[in-house]
Amino acid sequence: MTPPGPDLIIFTRELVREYAMGGEIVRALQGVSLQIRTNEYVAVMGPSGSGKSTLMNLIGCLDTPTSGEYWLNGQPVSDLDDDALARIRNKEIGFVFQTFNLLPRATALHNVELPLIYAGYGARERRVQAVHALERVGLADRMAHRPNELSGGQRQRVAIARALVNEPSILLADEPTGNLDSTTSGEIMQVFAELHRQGQTIVIVTHEHDIAAHAARVVTLRDGVIATDRRQAA
Amino acid sequence: MPVFEAFRLALQTIRAQKLKSGFSLLGVFIGVASLIAAWSIVNGVNRYMTEKFAQTLYGVNTFQLRRRPMFAANVPDSVWRAWRRRPRIKFSDAEAVRAALTMPVVTAWQSDENGSVFYGGKEARDIQLVTASERYFEIKNLRIAIGRPFTAQENRSGVPVAVLGDAVAKRLFVDRTPLDRSVRIGGIGYRVIGVVERQGSVLGFPLDRFVVVPAMSPAQNLVNPPGVLDALLVKARSELEMRDAMEVAEGVMRSRRHLRPKQDNNFVLDTSEGVQRFWAGISRILVIVLPGVVIVSLVIGGIVIMNIMLMSVSERTREIGLRKSLGARRRDVLRQFLAESAALATVGAAFGIVAGIGLTLLINAVSPLPASVSPASVVLGVIMGAGVGVIAGVYPASRAARLDPIAALRQE
Question: Is the pTM of this model over 0.80?
Answer without folding.
Answer: no
